[in-house]
């Protein structure tokens, strides 16, 4: 299910935490969680450091009043929340996705005839939470050194040493 997650989240409601309902999702590209690698003696070794995270989010049928409120807070961290429910083989699965970060680029409302009305955002991700059927797939909080993938906290030891 994770490989088709972007398709499952298309057309769902998106909220901005602390502001309200923003619109419906169009195309979405979730952050790709990858660790930096370094080459030593011809082999790649995991450094334990995350590559910079970036997400893209297209918002259709957006609420212009809420969007103006988000734009006024453009230098602040914005957290976008998407919730979905998928039914497959008579089993209902809940999906919860939370992407927090700074909007680094936004392509404004499309005004050409025939274009979908909406906005396309590029987000420099600082926090990312993904839960599928109540199980936490990712919980990443870069400022607080939290990197939980599949229930395993990759930064627990690092955090205990520096805090």
Order of helices and strands: HEEEEEHEEEEEEH
Indicate the radius of gyration in whole angstroms.
18 Å
- Give the proportion of residues in helices: 10-25%
Largest sheet: 6 strands, antiparallel, barrel
| Reported CATH architecture | Roll
**E-strand count:** 11
Q: How would you sum up the global shape?
A: globular
Distinctive features:
Pnp Oxidase, Chain A, single chain, two-stranded antiparallel sheet, 163 residues, mainly beta, six-stranded antiparallel beta barrel
Q: What does this 3D model show about the protein?
A:
There is one protein chain. The chain is mostly beta strands. It has one domain (2-32, 49-135): Pnp Oxidase, Chain A. It is 13% helix and 56% strand. The chain is built from three helices and eleven strands. It has helices spanning 5-9, 64-72, 156-162; strands at residues 13-16, 20-29, 35-40, 43-50, 54-60, 78-88, 91-107, 118-132, 135-141, 146-149, 152-153. The strands form two sheets. A six-stranded antiparallel β-barrel has the order 1-2-5-8-7-6. Strand 9 (135-141) and strand 10 (146-149) form a beta hairpin. It is globular. It starts with a helix and ends with a helix. The relative contact order is 0.19. The model has no long low-confidence stretch (mean pLDDT 86).
């Amino acid at each position: 299910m994770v490989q088709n997650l972007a398709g499952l989240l298309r057309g769902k409601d998106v909220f901005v935490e602390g502001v309200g309902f923003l619109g419906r999702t169009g195309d979405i590209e979730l952050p790709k969680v990858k660790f930096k690698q370094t080459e030593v003696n011809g082999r790649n070794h995991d450094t334990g450091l995350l590559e910079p995270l970036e997400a893209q989010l297209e918002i259709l049928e957006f609420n212009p009043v809420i969007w103006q409120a988000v734009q006024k807070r453009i230098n602040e961290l914005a957290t976008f929340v998407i919730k979905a429910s998928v039914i497959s083989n008579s089993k209902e699965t809940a999906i919860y996705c939370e992407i927090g970060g700074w909007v680094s680029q936004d392509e404004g409302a499309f005004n050409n005839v025939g274009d979908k009305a909406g906005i396309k955002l590029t987000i420099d991700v600082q926090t990312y939470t993904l839960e599928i059927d109540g199980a936490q797939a990712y919980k990443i909080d870069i400022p607080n050194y939290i990197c939980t993938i599949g229930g395993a906290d990759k930064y627990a030891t690092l955090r205990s040493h520096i805090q």
